[in-house]
Amino acid sequence: MATANEVTNRRKSLYKQIYFWVVVGIVLGIVVGYFFPATGEAM
Q: Which of 4, 26, 23, 3 is nearest to 15 (CA)?
């Protein structure tokens, strides 16, 4: 059975991964909207 510390570490790791991918998605959205505005608008 996992200890409380292991569960906490897994949650922090997952949170960091989700945060990272949200930032990546936002940056990609900005890049697409800036360089390809028609494509960004169609999305």
A: 23
Let me know if residue 26 belongs to a domain: yes
Which two three-digit tokens encode residue 28? Answer: 């990609």
- The tally of domains found in the chain comes to 1
Structural domain range at position 30: 18-43
Contact 32, 40 (CB under 8 A): yes
Residue 43 lies in a domain: yes
What pLDDT, in 10s, does the model give residues 1-43? 556 666 666 667 776 788 889 999 999 999 999 998 888 778 7
Using CA atoms, how far residue 21 sits from 1, 18, 27, in Å, is: 30, 5, 10
